[in-house]
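Reopening this one. Same input as before:
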Amino acid sequence: VQLVESGGGLVQSGGSLRLSCVASGLDFERFSIGWFRQVPGKEREAVSCISNAHTPSIWYENFVEGRFAISRDNAKKTVYLEMNNLKAEDTAVYYCAADRRFTTVQMMCYLFQMIENDYWGQGTQVTVSP
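Same output, byte for byte:
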């Protein structure tokens, strides 16, 4: 299993980025995918989760406030996180992870610590300058 994030970078406050998570080595359509982020010295937190292709549903953490949009392209085995109106507090390393055990995406985003290590990407840095 391999998950590879890309699309991070340096952007000014109010700017936009689109993150991509490309998956391989798994039956992509059967997996729910989540985006998570972590600031050094702080705990990792959930950003958004999208269900598998067969039961489409989406969950966002409150701080997203309508600024981010998660989507998936099953043909490309890719999940995207479109981030708009970025704020300095969005600065973090963003990770994607995959799991198919949770019955809802909300549960996946709440219990992401249970996702096995092999189902996490290496992360992509997002830096938002004030």
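So the earlier flakiness isn't reproducible anymore. For the record, The CA atoms of residues 16 and 84 lie 4 Å apart.
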